[in-house]
Design brief:
By secondary structure, this protein is an alpha/beta fold. The protein has one domain: TIM Barrel (Alpha-Beta Barrel). Helix content is 50%, strand content 12%. It contains 14 helices and eight strands. The chain has an eight-stranded parallel β-barrel, surrounded by ten helices. Helix 12 runs antiparallel to helix 13. It is globular. The C terminus is likely disordered.
Length: 342
């Protein structure tokens, strides 16, 4: 199955009432872990790369890893998504490379650190929507800012999404998916105690979903930071201080109210780090990278499988035939024509 547009994955998820995990990658082992988990659970999946990942792996290497994933796992619908694009040029380069979905994070200015104005956010996001939809590519926008820093991207300032502004933002930009800023944050150190729905401000998702029932919502910073993964790291010499992530049951509650894309990154990093530390501790004389990367891959796969099952996407990979980017571009033109003639 060819790389598919994220819009199709999210549309189908909305029909089925489930969420789709979006997992960040930087290297071969992460791609393999995610795709093997998708195959074993028969799940559609979103693989995403940040600007930092594209720089680390090199665009051509990263893209051809995805081409290999298509060839090895032809039955799995997978979307390649640009995570936290900091400007139209970043999104344009991703589209030209072959990404089937891009995020224009106009909640921050192009430096990726300074909170922007609503007007700026609308302007740059709309620019990307027009450019991307012309080629059938999905666009995710963001309104509000999360806490934490991810790959150097983030202001450290929390500004929860205003549901009233969310309606205006979607109407003015035409985004396919909206990332909402609630009580989540990027990174491992999200909370000093287990959060509940009030701390997470889940009511924001519910209210936005009520006003925008056909808009696909996105939860960023949604790693659950499992204690058992942290414990493995610390048992073998790590120094991760006590921390809590987003409980899976709260993510499931979000899925019940329109969340269709759930971003997970930190949990895979924790799983891989713990497995590698354990491998080195058990055989300190071992130096073959395959010795420690195999258990790292297996540990990441276990996390991805668990999330795919929890989000409800398991079993849905074969529900539909892929829509080409060209056909999706035609749909966007038809949708735009209907809007302008209504």
């Amino acid at each position: 199955m060819a790389l598919v547009t994220m819009r199709q994955l999210l549309d189908e998820a909305a029909k089925g009432g489930y969420g789709v995990g979006a997992f960040n990658v930087n290297n071969l082992e992460q791609v393999q872990a995610i795709m093997e988990a998708a195959q074993e659970t028969n799940s559609p999946v979103i693989i995403q790369a940040s600007r930092g990942a594209r720089k680390y792996a090199n665009d051509r290497f990263l893209y051809h890893l995805m081409v290999a994933a298509e060839e090895v796992y032809p039955e799995i619908p997978v979307s390649l998504h640009q995570d936290h694009g900091n400007g139209p040029d970043t999104c344009r380069s991703a589209i030209e490379l072959g990404f089937t979905s891009v995020m224009m994070d106009g909640s921050l200015e192009e430096d990726g650190k300074t909170p922007s104005s609503f007007e700026y956010n609308v302007r740059v996001t709309r620019e990307v929507v027009e450019m991307a939809h012309e080629r059938g590519v999905t666009v995710e926008g963001e309104l509000g800012t999360l806490g934490g820093i991810e790959d150097g991207h983030g202001s450290g300032v929390v500004a929860l999404t205003d549901p009233d502004q969310a309606v205006e933002f979607v109407e003015q930009t035409g985004v396919d998916a909206l990332a909402v800023a609630i009580g989540t944050s990027h990174g491992a150190y999200k909370f000093t105690k287990e959060p509940d729905r009030e701390i997470l401000a889940m009511h924001i998702i519910e209210e936005i979903n009520e006003w925008l029932p056909t808009t696909h919502l996105v939860m960023h910073g949604s790693s659950s930071v499992p204690k058992e993964l942290v414990d493995i790291i610390n048992e073998y010499g790590g120094e991760i201080r006590p921390t809590w992530g987003v409980p899976v049951n709260e993510i499931q509650a979000g899925i019940e109210h329109g969340v269709r894309k759930v971003n997970v990154d930190t949990d895979l990093r924790l799983a891989a780090t713990g497995a590698i530390r354990k491998a080195f501790a058990e055989k300190p004389g071992e130096f073959d990278p395959r010795y420690y990367l195999k258990p790292a891959r297996e540990a990441m796969k276990a996390v991805v499988k668990a999330r795919m099952e929890a989000f409800g996407q398991a079993g849905h990979a074969g529900d539909y035939e892929p829509i080409s980017l060209g056909d999706m571009a035609v749909r966007y033109r038809e949708e735009g024509h209907k809007l302008t003639t209504a």
